[in-house]
């Protein structure tokens, strides 16, 4: 049985990465897709865990060879999802979170079947700015760029299946967990197991 791709987008500072990390720690059959990026690692980020950090030449060569399911330029840096990595996870029956921007989500929508689209919003743009400042990992210039981009991203929220407003992390995580659990229980996804268990009665 193939796993479920969960596509999660959010403006910067919405708490998306924290929520995704908590979900991966909670669900045994859920993995995080590790993107390729030309961005430099932030303090504490590990190559192969948070991202696969590559230079422009390596990234462009992967684009040429068609190795990305989707790729996009975000805040002047390139980011992409490896086709092969994603297929390996889904084929082994595991579900996966793709933490990607709105452009990436649009292109995945055209290419991948069965995706569940989740948009995470901060309670306000001001709150988002405060979170980015508190994180202390981006310059004031970078934060300004991210908040400006956020305005365009928020307009695309209605295209997602679910929206979570992350005002309180605990509550947002409860909602996130409920969405994942409900999607796993959809009858069309459960039928393979039902048939196995109740073959003689069906
Ligand atoms: P950050 O630099 O803060 O880690 O990520 C910047 C933005 O790039 C975020 O919106 C993040 O979701 C997005 N992003 C990360 N990986 C990918 C990817 O593989 N593809 C696309 N399209 N966006 C990505």
Could you explain the architecture of this structure?
Helix 5 runs antiparallel to helix 6 (140-154). The mean pLDDT is 94. This protein has 8 helices and 9 strands. With 202 residues, the chain is of the alpha/beta class. The protein has a domain at 5-33 and 94-201: Rossmann fold (3-Layer(aba) Sandwich), CATH 3.40.50. The protein starts with a strand and ends with a helix. Bound molecules: guanosine-5'-monophosphate. Residues 12, 35, 39, 70, 72, 74, 79-81, 99-101, 103-104 line the site of guanosine-5'-monophosphate.
- Class from helix and strand fractions: alpha/beta
SSE series: EHEEEHEEHEHEHHEHH
Beta-strand content bin:
15-25%
Annotated CATH homologous superfamily of the domain at 5-33 and 94-201: P-loop containing nucleotide triphosphate hydrolases
């Amino acid at each position: 049985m193939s796993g479920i791709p969960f596509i999660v987008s959010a403006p910067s500072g919405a708490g998306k990465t924290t929520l995704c990390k908590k979900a991966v720690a909670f669900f045994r059959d859920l993995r995080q897709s590790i993107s390729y990026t030309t961005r430099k690692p932030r303090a504490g980020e590990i190559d192969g865990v948070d991202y696969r950090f590559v230079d422009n030449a390596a990234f462009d060569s992967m684009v040429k060879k068609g190795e990305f399911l989707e790729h996009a330029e975000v805040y002047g840096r390139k980011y992409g999802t490896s086709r092969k990595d994603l297929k390996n996870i889904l084929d082994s029956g595991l579900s996966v979170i793709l933490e990607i921007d709105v452009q990436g989500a649009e292109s995945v929508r055209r290419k991948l079947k069965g995706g569940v689209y989740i948009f995470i919003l901060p309670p306000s743009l001001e709150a988002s700015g405060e979170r980015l400042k508190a994180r202390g990992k981006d310059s004031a210039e970078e934060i300004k760029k991210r908040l400006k981009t956020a305005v365009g991203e928020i307009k695309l929220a209605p295209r997602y299946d679910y929206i979570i407003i992350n005002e309180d992390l605990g509550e947002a995580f409860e909602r996130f967990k409920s969405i994942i659990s409900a999607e796993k229980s959809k009858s069309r996804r459960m039928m393979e197991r039902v048939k196995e268990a109740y073959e003689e009665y069906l």
